[in-house]
Each structure stands twice: as structure tokens, then as C-alpha cells.
Fold each of these.
Amino acid sequence: MSQLLEIENATLKFGGVVAVNDLSFSVKEGEVYAIVGPNGAGKSTVFNLISRFYDPYAGALRFDGQNLLARSADAVADLGIARTFQNIELFDHATVLQNLLVGRHRHRRTNMVQEMLFTPKVRREEERHRAAVEDVIDFLDLQPYRDKMIAGLPYGVRKVVELGRALASGPRLLLLDEPASGLSVEETQDMRWWIDDIRKQMGITVLMVEHDMGLVSGVSDRVLALADGAKLAEGTPAQVQSDPAVIEAYLGTGVV
Ligand SMILES: Nc1ncnc2c1ncn2[C@@H]1O[C@H](COP(=O)(O)OP(=O)(O)OP(=O)(O)O)[C@@H](O)[C@H]1O
């Protein structure tokens, strides 16, 4: 498997706080790779670096061999990197279908005049986007909710819709920020199947930050344990969970 994402000696400081400290890791095409670590370890900051919300103080970031640092946040999405957020970010007063169509935004190839005139090209594009979104709705069993407003939906369903919005963009790399947080045991189990299927059926590479070690062990090929912004351990879930440095660092946090 080739490397899809490479982080090389990345460092990011907020004032005097070193949030990410000379961190290197890579994610192979087709794998599920999880980042774990106690609160404040730097997990979200790593995601924000990859999404290009932050510039690193030093280091290199590459996606499929291309320099990510030469691109803006929008351009990163165009490369095929999609993400979900720890605090779900959806349009509350729009339907599930409308939110998923927003996920298709990067594929729009028509201009505003064409859209106002609703030319045949616009109509064909629209049909293509709808078909892609309907596939995601079927895949995630969202049919009962497709015309419902986000605001009225239970938290667990909103979480699946957010996953759907990211999938609708047709990514090569999916960044999941705490996919199981706030979910019940059953919903977490469903999330595990979705992630498995996303990798196996859709061939999408997944990088996730997650506290639930049951989910991490269940779906991940490899795990990176972070502490104070630096790599503590990397390996299979079993290797990382039994690593003495990890046990020592997490002792009493209830994470491992
Ligand atoms: N925008 C910011 N400004 C200043 N400091 C920040 C900012 N974002 C993060 N930090 C600091 O950087 C460090 C890493 O934070 P980060 O949010 O990446 O950790 P995390 O591992 O994602 O934690 P959690 O599990 O609580 O989400 C922490 O010390 C945090 O206080």
C-alpha cells in the first residue's frame, strides 16, 4: 500500500504551548488509522493542520505526494479530503437531503448564469449530484430522514448525517473527529460497521481521532498514541494498548 498522507516533523505552537511537537506519521491508502491521546494531547490540532485551518510552525504535509502547505483549506477539500467535526457542523434549518447536497459542492462544474437559466448541462449536473447523494442516503440507511430538518433529529442521527455529508463529497481521505462521542453503545456499534464498510466497500482511507478504545480496536489497522503533541507509540491496537509508555502516560485517565 502506498502512503496517501504524510506528516513530517510537524510542529505547531500557540504562544508558549507546543500543541504538536516534531510529529511524523503517515497513513497508507486503504487503511483505517486512529489517533488516541488524553485531553490536550494535540489530536484536534493535527486535524486542523491537515485541513489547513492552521499553518505549522515547521514541518511538511503531503497528500498523495503533493505539498498540502501550498494549498488553501478549500483547495484541500478539492483534493479529496473531507472531515467531520467534534461538534457536529450542519445546517440546522435545512433537510438531510439539502445538507448532503452541500457536500457535493466541490463537484459543481457549472457557473451562475448557467444555473439561473437551468441549462441542460445544469440539469444533467443536478441529476448526477442527486444520484450521488441518494447513494449515500441508501448506504447509511437515512431514507426515513431524507426530508426532515436537522434541528428536529436525534443527536445520533445528526452524527450519521454529518458522516454522510463528508461521504457525499466523494473523498479519498475521510477525517473523523470523535465519531463515537455522545453515541449510545448501539449507535457506536453501528458507527463501527459504517467505518468498516466505508473502507471495504468504498475504498476510502480513514483517519480518525477517537477516545472509545473499543471502537478504535474494532476498526483500526494502526493506532498512534499522542502525548503532549508528540508520538508516544504507534502500531496495531493491541501493540499500542500494551505499550508501557502508553500505560504510564494514560494511567488513571481511563483511556486505555
Ligand atoms: N486555538 C488555540 N489557541 C491556544 N491554544 C490552543 C488552541 N487550540 C489548542 N490549543 C492548546 O493546544 C494543546 C492541544 O490541544 P488539542 O485541542 O489539539 O488537544 P486534543 O488532543 O484534541 O484534546 P481533546 O481530546 O480535549 O479534544 C492544548 O494544550 C490546548 O490547550
Amino acid sequence: MTTHERTAELAAAIEAVSRAAQVTQAVQRELVTADTLTKKDRSPVTVADFASQAVVCETLQRHFANDPVVGEEDAAELRDEANEPLRASVVEHVQRALADIAPATEAQVLSWIDRGHAEGGAKGRFWTLDPIDGTKGFLRGEQYAIALALIEDGEIVFGALGCPNLPSPADEGEGLLIVASRGDGTWMTPLIFEGESELQPVHVSDIAAAADANFCESVESGHSDQDQSVQIAKKLGITAEPVRMDSQAKYATVAGGSAAIYLRLPTRPGYREKIWDHAAGVIAVEEAGGKVTDVAGKPLEFGHGRQLEANRGVIATNGRIHDAVVAAVRDVLES
Ligand SMILES: Nc1ncnc2c1ncn2[C@@H]1O[C@H](COP(=O)(O)OS(=O)(=O)O)[C@@H](OP(=O)(O)O)[C@H]1O
Ligand SMILES: [Mg+2]
């Protein structure tokens, strides 16, 4: 697929994610300091989260006025009188990112953020958005992603995953943008790039034995059980150390073949995964030739509202080793 053959949806998703990345990069440059982590100050990621959601929702509304969005954020907190400085900072960043479109008012910015309130479900078409996935990675200056996917009748049909801190293809531009279209494949291009750049195809690793795999998992041990992943790796004969990274950059890494496994092992019985934490990454891996299921080996179901109500945990692989990984996960979780 070349750039001029993109569908309208793919072009809109690319525009939305690229604009949002300009915002998150600007916030990172201007607001994240050495003190941010030591002072446990989350305000930079809060500004970037709201501004990113506003910019993506504005872009989607301009291209597809009637499409609902299931987004992680809403503007209730921002409307609070006490949050005037935060609100002003969000509005300023959105205005800069949309300067070539129209001057944005504060009311418009809040209304764009609130467009993310949709509930999703099994019928019809909606977008799902994580404006900054891997908020902790963002604050540490490590991996994070802007994740946008289109779901029709419960099936993911498009995904765009912007990873500002993954290496850019061919060292052009900045960051990595992965796009996937159902039945058409997965493609990559620099995320921030002046001018036209071609999409290049992305394929999963072709290893046939799980023992040869690199696997990736969350940095946060509260999001995926790292003791169990050690046991699973041992069972599969994997000797490589796990690659720990924040956000759906893990799906991008499996899609691109640098790792053959992404394990997300439930840590709390009551936790339900959120659809925006997975949809864009799942289609990227599947269309690159890989496979994604939950820890029981069942496909992820995106038609149950804002959460993956029917699934626990995630296993993403290059496909060839999927059954072996699911079997090892089952053994360890049952023991
Ligand atoms: N208990 C539990 N189990 C599983 N997942 C959880 C849990 N709690 C939170 N979250 C979600 O994890 C998202 C962060 O993704 P990762 O775990 O891949 O990255 S990281 O290691 O936290 O950096 C994170 O997304 P962001 O909030 O967008 O960063 C959360 O939606
Ligand atoms: Mg997230």
C-alpha cells in the first residue's frame, strides 16, 4: 500500500496521531523536568493526556462528524474551578497543535475532550483512544504510545499506534508510527516527519521455536505478574532476559519482530483490561502475521463496552509459537 491508496479512515487516523504526538513531545520538552519523578508530580502527563485527546477528537470530528469515540479521559476534572491553571495549559497546547486549522476556544477544547465519552458495544462503528498509554513511561522519558483504533460491529478494522520514543524507520524523522488495516497488513513510517514518507511493511519474527524467543512485558509489576513470567519463560526454554517496556510499544515490538512474545499476566482477579489499552496494538500484531489471545487462548472481544469483559490477560506472539506459549501459561497459572 502506498500513501495515495490509504483509505479516508487511515489518513484521518494518521493525521490525528501525528498531531497528538506533536503535543506530547512539546509537553515532554517544556514541562517534564528532572524533578517531575522525584516530586511525584503527575501534572505534565495530565496536561498531555487531555490535550492529546482533544487534538485526536477534533481531527476525527472534522473527518467523520458522527463517529463516537471511546476515550480514556473526559473533561469533568478540567471544568473544576480549582483547575484553572491546568485547563489553561491544556488549551494552550491544543491551540498550538491545531494552529493551521482554526483558533480553538476553551469551550471547544473541553467539548472535544468530552467526545471521548462513548460506551462502545457490539453493534455499529466507533473509535477507541488512549491519548497517552504508558503514563509512567511518559514521565520517565521512556516508552509511551498514542493509541487509536476503529471498531466496527465488535471487530477492530484499523489501528494507528504512535510511539514517539521508539526508533524511527531508516532513522528518518522522529519516533515510529505503526498503522494496520484489516486484511491489508501492518505498515510503519516515521511519526514526526516533514513531507511525504512511504509506508513500509511490518512483519512479525519468523522464529519457529519458543526457546529462541525474546519476550516483553510491563515495567510495572502491578500490571503483569513478573514472577509467573519467569516460570513461563523457563518452561519454554527461553534464556533471554525479558524486555520490559511501558505501553503498547510492546505490541509494536512484537509486530516488528524484535520480540516474539508479549505476556500480560493478570495480577488482580477483579481487574478488567480497557479496550483502548489493546485495540491498536492487537490489529498491528495480527496484520503483521502474529496472533493475540487472552491467557486462556481465547480471542479478545472488543464488543462488550469500554472493557474486555470476556477476557483475562493477554498473550501476543508471532503466531507460529502461540499454542506452545498458551500451553506454558496455562500450566503455570494452574500450578
Ligand atoms: N492492575 C492492572 N492490570 C493491568 N493493567 C493495568 C492495571 N492497572 C492499570 N493498568 C493499565 O495498564 C496500562 C499501562 O500499560 P503497561 O502496563 O503496558 O505499561 S506500564 O508498565 O504501566 O508502563 C495503563 O494505561 P495508562 O493509564 O494509559 O498508562 C492502565 O490502563
Ligand atoms: Mg493505557
